[in-house]
Amino acid sequence: MTIDTQKIAQEAVDIIAEKIKELKTLNIIVAGKTGVGKSTLINAVFRDNLTETGLGKPVTDHMRKLTKKDVPLCIYDTRGFELGKEVQDQVRKEIIDTISLGLATNDINKTIHCIWYCINTASNRVEPEEIEWLRKLSKENQITQVPIIIVLTQSFSKKHGEAMKKMLLEENLDVVQVIPVLAQDYEIDEDYTVKSYGLDTLIEIMGEALPDELLDTLQNVQIACLEAKKKRAQAAIATATLLAAGEGAAPIPIADCAMLIPTQLGMIASITAIFGFDVNKSIITAFLSSTLGAGGATLLGKTVVTSILKAIPGAGSVAGGAISASTAGLITAALGEAYIGIMTLVFNGDMSINDLGTNKGKEVMKKLFRDELSKSRGKKYSSNHQ
Prior knowledge:
386 residues; two-stranded antiparallel sheet; 13% strand; 13 helices; 11 strands
């Protein structure tokens, strides 16, 4: 069986585009006093430097809307306010009004999903007026129940950040969590730099607070936590593996192996959407030819399957022109894990997206796939002999 890898790659690109198009828009209100570092926080958590795209679109006297084309994220950034009661009340009213307007649309893409209230830890104290402001906001938010997260920005000292967190939690405010963060590495002097921290916790808490329909969106737009992306991507692999293996253990004829292709392409598309990279046809072609297709000529044909099975210790052969359902699942899982490995290299800056189409990139992808096949088979062997 011979299948055109170019055609399959184009199908993958189309499915990726559809997956990204289906992502719901995540809407967050970010509030806090002037100078708390909201812009730095937003740019550290989300891709594409949202706060550097201009002033944003004003939606109220004290709020602007930050968006960027093809990014399913909208930040409602409240202009920093000081301790003047009149401005405080106006900002709070505008937040509640924005929440209510979004709910009235019955459209998840226009609903406010979370509020971050930022407090500068370096200021050494939380003003009583801020505590009162948060109490009033929480009270007015009781019906709408939008999750509120207090983010302690510029927490250069973890000890100080934890102390302020403890103090705020003791106030029994109606908030999801209080999270100390340092959005960027901070150089004390040439000999000592405080490393950024806390953003992964913020993403974790967001993942728990948001509805399921927004979890893929969260991972697509966030750049702060690799582990959260990998965990979500591995859930996509688990789903695809079950589909590939089928409910029974009936062997899959080699001639029918092409039936696995839509499942595997859907898995690759889901992982791509989660990582949020711009993956084009040439990159998918390189990945497929480096893993499932020798030289890009075939995909899951008998020759290719035989070659793959040789890389799996104890997997057997394609005797009778068939592979077991469990082996089909194993190949699919290894393919997904290898793709996560590639996305991880790009996320960490060890490779660029453009590197993937080079000979070096193809060799890295091929090795990742072979390693994952061996690992997967090892896990299966261990579980069968326990």
